[in-house]
Amino acid sequence: MTIIAIANQKGGVGKTTTAINLGTALAATGLRVLLVDLDPQGNASTGLGIGRASRVHSSYDLLVGDSSLAACAQPTKVPRFDIVPATVDLSGAEIELVEFAERTHRLDRVFAEGAAAWDVVLIDCPPSLGLLTMNAMVAADSLLVPLQCEFFALEGLSQLLTTVERIRTRFNPGLAIIGVALTMYDRRNRLTEQVSDDVRAVLGKVVFNTVIPRNVRLSEAPSHGLPALIYDVRCPGSEAYIALARELIARLPGPGARQSVEAA
Q1: Distance (Å, rounded) from C-alpha 116 to C-alpha 113?
Q2: Residue 121, SS3?
């Protein structure tokens, strides 16, 4: 089992879109995939067709110890792809977790007790570096960073990498960055090309070769409660996520499979 946190403290960079469609692509290869929706907005749950009324057990219940992973996980419309949905209760979880012992290890403990039913666990983190994201990083084997091709991309990434280093030092020395995925890529925009070049110059091979384009079908799919790969498998966005899944599989655990920033 491999646990991958999908994180970036900036909002609107494609974290949830990446979580949904990458999970779908991985499941299509035969892997058993679990997506843990750790964002209080619950967009990953909505994007996979899980209505509010169906979210009886949620990621909030996991964090506060009210339910087990097996009880919270539920199937999606995609074969071999399950989800632990998020509810609005999660918005107050960070305040409640302050009172808990080992508040940064709540999710880690949950996975240690029972995640063997899946080959890959993806965690869709909120757009912040608070206790929810820290729990994800402490529990994860690796980190996947969606990075929007915009002017302030590298500035935000440096803040994230500083947090990752602190997590490594204090809580999870094995945390590695499995890859950086460039999102919302527009070849018609010269700034996009420049940002891509700059990121690759700084991070080297940590950056995936595949880029995720700006694509209307990627934006439309969540409103239908479907991953883009099911909504329109032939659109450029779906094809990009299929290619990204191939790259990710090649980096999954094994001798030398993981890549960290230090290797760049």
Answers
A1: 9
A2: strand
